[in-house]
């Protein structure tokens, strides 16, 4: 009984800590992985599913990590090694990345001042770069921040709350890149953003 009470207290403390984190993180893992041919999120790199790496990256940004599932929703929680704060399923996943992003944002608390967005297919993201993104957003939560892709901003990114209404107008496989550019997002160098995994060949190249 003492052990049970101790565990409950730890869980309550963790929940309270997450509730105070006003900058949650979304991991988008709802796609069908058509180019990959199977569940890309569960493909292994360095002895872990890509999803585990993404959850770990999101943990560097926020204590409140929410994974958005779709096509293979029931399978991902069963196979994942690292547990997010919550699993969120969307039936609208065939509508593309924009639907996953909207589904995640619909669950965010009213206290959230902004949200980080992480993809499931960028396992080489630099820890220091993620730290810079986290620190920048916490210092200026009203400003948008994004990884620097050279000619454009992209994910991982931080979307302040005032930008959310525009995000909710996205359709299909549109991400937030154009919105971030239009909003003048501050770009941060994050090594590894260009080494994403779309096909089995991409994953083999990383290995």
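Q: What amino acid sequence fits the structure above?
A:
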């Amino acid at each position: 009984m003492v052990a049970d009470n101790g565990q409950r207290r730890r869980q309550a403390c963790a929940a309270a800590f997450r509730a105070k984190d006003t900058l949650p993180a979304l991991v988008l893992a709802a796609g069908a992985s058509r180019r990959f041919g199977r569940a890309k999120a569960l493909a292994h790199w360095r002895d872990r599913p890509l999803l585990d790496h993404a959850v770990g990256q999101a943990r560097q940004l926020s204590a409140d990590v929410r994974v958005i599932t779709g096509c293979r929703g029931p399978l991902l929680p069963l196979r994942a090694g690292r547990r997010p704060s919550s699993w969120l399923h969307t039936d609208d996943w065939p509508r593309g990345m924009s639907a996953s992003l909207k589904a995640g944002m619909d669950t965010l608390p009213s206290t959230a001042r902004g949200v980080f967005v992480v993809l499931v297919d960028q396992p080489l993201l630099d820890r220091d770069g993620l730290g810079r993104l986290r620190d920048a957003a916490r210092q200026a939560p009203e400003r948008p921040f994004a990884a620097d892709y050279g000619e454009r901003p992209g994910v991982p990114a931080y979307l302040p709350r005032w930008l959310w209404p525009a995000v909710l107008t996205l359709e299909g496989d549109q991400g937030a890149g154009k919105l971030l550019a239009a909003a003048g997002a501050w770009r941060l160098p994050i090594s590894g953003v260009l080494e994403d995994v779309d096909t089995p060949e991409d994953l083999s190249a990383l290995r």
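Q: And what stands out in the fold?
A: The chain has one domain: 21-206.
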